[in-house]
């Protein structure tokens, strides 16, 4: 089981990338994976919020918990200039 310190480390690593463009890959179940680009907008004690570039799907923001990153249900890549850097 994930400890509070592990989730806190994930949160602190995300705080360093606030406002940066990221690539989001999320597992929605039943082999459905969405891939979207957005900006890491907010980091809260239990969740983080991503503002999506593509608003055609009816929502402009999504939020996930840090345990989603820990269990690989969500993967993030931070864009640095033209390159992508994987953070989890």
Automatic annotation (TrEMBL):
InterPro entries: Protein_Veg
Protein origin, superkingdom: Bacteria
Biological process, per Gene Ontology: regulation of DNA-templated transcription
Protein name per the record: Uncharacterized protein Veg
